[in-house]
Recover the amino acids of this structure.
């Protein structure tokens, strides 16, 4: 196994183990077993469990961010961008459902992880807020609204809608009405 493949296997195993057992309950031995490597091998890639966890979260966030630019570029207007973002978001949530498991989502994260999550989140938020600003300037949506609030409503609405449809209604990402939620959001933002 190549060095980068081994690193990715360790990150995948960490995601699974930490999701099942929580951060405090996760043992490096279990992560090593899940990755098919020795415990010492993990420390060749990550200096501590905190570092491994931080990198795991950042790696997942980076995957989302990598697809975000293409997702937004494929839309001609804010409505299409919201529709595309909805689909991208649903696919990400469906394929990384372990991140939404209660032991991971509600635990006390290490400080370095909190800081990385904050940086990643702020970059994502700024990207969407920039698109909202462009739509306001082009008069596609009302310019008398707060772009930060609009951004929060878009992101929060899409996340909640995807989670409800994926886990509450057991739909696949393709079965979700991405166009419908985008239309509804834009209708509330127009002049």
């Amino acid at each position: 196994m190549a060095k980068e493949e081994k690193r990715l296997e360790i990150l995948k195993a960490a995601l699974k183990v930490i999701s099942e057992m929580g951060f405090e309950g996760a043992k490096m031995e279990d992560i090593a077993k899940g990755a098919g490597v020795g415990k010492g091998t993990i420390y060749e890639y990550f200096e501590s469990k905190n570092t491994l966890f931080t990198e795991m979260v950042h790696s997942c966030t980076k995957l989302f961010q990598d697809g975000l630019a293409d997702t937004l570029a494929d839309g001609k207007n804010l409505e299409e961008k919201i529709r595309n973002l909805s689909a991208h978001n649903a696919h990400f949530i469906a394929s990384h459902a372990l991140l939404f498991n209660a032991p991971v989502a509600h635990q006390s994260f290490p400080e370095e992880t909190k800081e990385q999550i904050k940086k990643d989140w702020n970059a994502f938020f700024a990207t969407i807020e920039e698109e909202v600003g462009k739509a306001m300037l082009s008069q596609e949506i009302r310019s008398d609204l707060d772009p930060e609030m609009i951004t929060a409503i878009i992101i929060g609405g899409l996340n909640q809608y995807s989670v409800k449809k994926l886990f509450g209604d057991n739909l696949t990402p393709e079965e979700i009405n991405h166009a419908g939620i985008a239309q509804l959001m834009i209708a509330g933002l127009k002049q």
Q: What stands out?
A: The radius of gyration is 19 Å. The chain is about 75% helix and 0% strand. The chain has a mean pLDDT of 88.
